[in-house]
Predict the structure of Enoyl-CoA hydratase/isomerase family protein.
Amino acid sequence: MSEVVTYSREGNIGVITVDYPPVNALSHAVRSGLIAALEQGQKDSDAKALLLVCAGRTFIAGADIREFGKPMQEPGLASVVERYENSGKPLVAAVHGTALGGGLETALGCHYRVALSSAKVGLPEVKLGLLPGAGGTQRLPRLAGAQKALEMITTGQFVPAKDALGFGIVDAVDEGKDVKAAGMTFAQKVVDEGMPVRRVRDLTDKIAADKGRDVFEQFRASLKKTAHGQFSPFKCVDAVEAAFNLPFPEGLKRERELFVECMNSPQRAGQIHSFFAEREASKVKGLSKDTPVRDVNSVGIIGAGTMGGGIAMNFANVGIPVTIVEMKQEALDKGLGIIRKNYENSAKKGRITQKQMDDRMALITGSLDYDDFKDVDLVIEAVFENMAVKKEIFAKLDSICKPGAILASNTSTLDIDEIASTTQRPEDVVGMHFFSPANVMRLLENVRGSKTSDEVKATVMAVAKKIKKVGVLVGNCHGFVGNRMLHKRGIEAMALVDEGAKPQQVDKVLTDLGYPMGQFAMSDLAGIDVGYRISEELRNAGENVPPSWMDKLAEQGRLGQKTMAGVYKYEEGSRNPIPDPEVERIIEDFRKEQGIASREITDQEILERCMYVMVNEAAKILEEGIADRALDIDVVWIYGYGFPAYRGGPMFWADQIGLDVILAAVEKYHASVGGEQWKPASLLKQLVADGRKLGDL
Ligand code: 3H9
């Protein structure tokens, strides 16, 4: 008998227990163990019903993702599920934690399912570029009908036990905390009441009811908008449709074919890289697991603007009290009003209850007095980007905050060491760079200064987890990882338009790659005045900042979405960017003024110049130790800038293109376009010479 799956008998119930930490993933050992335990249960004449239950924090959370891409070892999961479904003795699955992917599929192979009320179920394979490949696309619709099955399988959403009961996915919900006891009670009822073996594959009423409906075409049409460029969501619809058009065994065969197509797609590789990169990023290189972490039970925020308000919501959402300090009552009232509005919108959409909203608002206190920070565990400064102002604030914090409080800046570009230098405790100073909108975007780029202590580094990474962000620890330089790379892409995007491309052409190349928006739509979202103000300040300080057609937009009051006109124009109430002939004229005039002869620019050149320039910069970032690993950069871009997770992040993407191809192009543009950004990174050259990849670092 395998050690990870055991069989025992309690009374007249045979108990099959999976115990394979951390998440009982269906590794080869678990699959073999499940079959051996089932056989034992079948042979045990005193067992009248069988119970499948898991030890540890969760029911089976899916196939073992680490085995993907390696040769499959028998038994495959589909045959394990089939064996369970074929069992002559009634089989009950008792679910706690999360029954996900192959885990839910295994439960669907059992004849009854009972779940703790805290449990969730889901088929999240689509998030890994896959579809459920062990009968999930055929069995779930037989229980939940076409609409719900399609929703769950194409989005990968987790469904709480109570909803799963309503959809027919589980047969009972237990309010207790002991999953084994819940399972035993249900299994005993099966025996006592003589409840029959009930195989999901034999259920036909939902299939008959939904057959021939146009729900599949509707799903395909909506996926064209929500999953543009993705492979597996469309295959999910094909597989579910097969449950309605084909007999069960053939539906399973069709599911298998589609599963293999997904498994072989590069998007699957990208998605799985993203999954593990996110988890690896939380383990900071060189930081021992045993590093002490400080308690953060109260937070202070300076600035009630868009960033400060969004940051405050993250803490209130997880029950941590927040004090926001502003300079003026009016600004404070405005900021608190916006927070309330955001919560009201979430409540209206049913994402939170009225009580949750009230509780969260009650955790946020406004103040005009820095002294209110004297007892907080963490302060995050979120005022505008001005070094002198930040230094003044940190000196003040140093005099007010208790020893051991962490002093963080939400700066997106400025030098953390310089900010820390105004305090007597640079070891407690750190960057915590949130992305706008801060209550939505999942990235938290934590920036270590040269003196930041390990304890503070470990604490801000733990805080990220606590507030449900993806934390990445990076080094200190202008723009850190994300904005430093973005800046280089911005230079190229502007140059491409100067040379003859249209802004919408540049943006389309980026959205075709999978970004949610292009460079210029992003400028409109952020506000064109932001860059303009920075350029003007630099010019006033005597720096040589060349003129641009974007300055002209700002000077005409075309500040982006907020004025309904920027690089694009916008219709009332819409964020949809519409190309504007007026802007094309402004660009044309600018080219004439500057004596630039416009030329035809290919999409390939746009792709290379916008993306390879970032890869080259990323190699410099790695070389300088600003990022520890290529995967950290991937995570920054996926969660901070919407780089498509199915491409695995810009570093994974670059490795797939081939670093030799990228280096050759970088050298070509260095010679033709010039500029520091095209100077080939030594690391890139070294990796190509050694035949290594960025992912090897
Ligand atoms: C599938 O089932 C295909 C089938 O349809 C068909 C087959 C034929 N495998 O996230 P956490 C590790 S596809 C291996 O930090 P949490 C994870 O890497 C699968 N390892 O914890 C981490 O390791 P480490 C469908 C896995 O509490 C540790 O467990 N299932 C797997 O925040 C803890 O993870 C999914 O897509 C796995 N399947 O969240 C579910 N899952 O400590 C994917 C986790 O070394 N998993 N690990 O860094 C999740 O969504 C979350 O991990 C879960 C727990 C919600 C379960």
Remarks:
- The chain has a mean pLDDT of 96.
- The radius of gyration is 28 Å.
- The CA atoms of residues 229 and 653 lie 15 Å apart.
- The pocket of (S)-3-Hydroxyhexanoyl-CoA is lined by residues 22-23, 25, 61-66, 77, 98, 100-102, 105, 124-125, 128, 130, 132-134, 136, 279 (CB under 6 Å).
